Inverse folding.
């Protein structure tokens, strides 16, 4: 088993360096913003939605090579994040959902699977609620649907959030790719305000989602296990995977790399099996 994990890690590392088959990238004018996207590989479309304060690379850079071996992967950056411009309005998960679907319409993609991580998972829920015909299956990585899905101290922390305590890896990644690095403060403040004002998604809306869902969470995640179990019960036909590790470690999100996790290869195989199984 140990040899298998080491081999998987070596393969994933090699892929991340050598095999990112980027076939297209650019900007699309979507609902008043210039939205950046990348397309990798060929096959059934899989849309990747990053976490708060993140870029394509920080959330998914380590797993895009694996996913794009068998899929057409569409990775994007949301309002004020990374290379995508801001609009003169606060962030909302509903607006992000509209923006993602607007981009897909321009790319002439009528139906897709979605993998959202953290805030991106919450956005994926809103896409499934607002645009059910667009969604085939959804993978919800550490997604939050209710305020009680995180410890009470999380909300106190968010009220005190400032740029100084934002993870340095995320700050560096933003500055590296953003057309205007001074937008970092705007992105941070918009993200923090959205979380402070987070509103529960009503149970009836979650229960109405018809798309099969795979819920993934770390056993030391910021999202509490009971919340993941509650979503599992409310989403008909859903599956739940609890993986050892912290928030995002199972996909080797950039702030978790020091842990030297070797789980991404296994988790991607699990995701692919879920997506490929007949509905």
């Amino acid at each position: 088993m140990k040899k298998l994990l080491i081999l998987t890690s070596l393969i994933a590392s090699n892929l991340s360096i050598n095999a990112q088959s980027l076939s297209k990238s650019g900007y699309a004018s979507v609902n008043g913003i210039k939205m950046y996207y990348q397309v990798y590989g060929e096959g059934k479309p899989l849309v990747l939605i990053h976490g708060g304060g993140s870029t394509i690379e920080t959330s998914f850079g380590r797993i895009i090579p694996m996913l794009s071996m068998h899929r057409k992967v569409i990775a994007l950056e949301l309002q004020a994040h990374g290379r995508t411009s801001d609009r003169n309005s606060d962030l909302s998960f509903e607006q992000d959902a509209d923006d993602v679907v607007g981009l897909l319409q321009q790319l002439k993609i009528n139906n897709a699977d979605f993998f959202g991580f953290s805030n991106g998972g919450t956005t994926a829920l809103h896409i499934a609620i607002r645009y059910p015909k667009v969604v085939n299956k959804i993978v919800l990585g550490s997604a939050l649907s209710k305020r009680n899905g995180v410890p009470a101290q999380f909300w106190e922390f968010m009220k005190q959030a400032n740029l100084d305590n934002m993870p340095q890896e995320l700050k560096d990644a933003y500055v590296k790719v953003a057309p205007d690095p001074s937008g970092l403060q705007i992105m941070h403040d918009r993200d923090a305000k959205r979380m402070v004002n987070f509103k529960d998604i009503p149970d009836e809306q979650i229960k109405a989602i018809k798309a099969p869902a795979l819920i993934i969470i770390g056993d030391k995640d910021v999202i509490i296990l009971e919340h993941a179990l509650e979503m599992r019960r409310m989403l008909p036909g859903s599956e739940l995977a609890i993986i050892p590790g912290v928030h995002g470690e199972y996909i080797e999100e950039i702030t978790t790399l020091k842990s030297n996790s070797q789980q991404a290869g296994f988790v991607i195989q699990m995701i692919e099996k879920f997506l490929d199984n007949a509905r």
Remarks:
- The chain has a mean pLDDT of 92.
- The chain has eleven helices and eight strands.
- Residues 108 and 126 are 20 Å apart (CA to CA).
- The radius of gyration is 17 Å.
